[in-house]
Amino acid sequence: MSSNALVxxxxxxxxxxxxxxxxxxxxxxxxxxxVVILLNNAGIETLNPKIQIRKYxxxxxxxxxxxxxxxxxxxFFEREKESHMVKYTRGVKYIVGKENPVxxxxxxxxxxxxxxxxxxxxxxxxxxxxxxxxxxxxxxxKDFYGIFEKTLPAKERSIILLxxxxxxxxxxxxxxxxx
Length: 179
What we know:
By secondary structure, the chain is α+β, with helices and mostly antiparallel strands. It has four helices and 14 strands.
């Protein structure tokens, strides 16, 4: 009976290794997009989430598209059949876990997919309330503190009371961090 249990356990292990699953793939810097193209051309589904954020560049705010996880992407493949091909795709350094790749739970992948709009995760401003102390993250008033007063009707701007100057400041809400 113990030999049957051993055979059953071995069969189960090989079944799970032949199932398609999500794995994290570590790429060379700035190679995520080219790796996605190569893997997709090979019939492997990928997830390469990006985030659109506002950055203060040369005196003004600009929308910038960046990798959500720089140098990482997710690939859906059969470990036994396709890991060798994934591992040796141009631009790939390794599959996370190397010799024993670590599966990414499907709940994590679904959570990321739910937040995507056209392959992009939008930056979500913090939920601020009147009286919250905030830190300015970027721009000419970077590292100054203030007290949040209100969000303006445009929804991307807000009014804060700047502590250092005791004056009101109209500022992009994405520049604020609750402290």
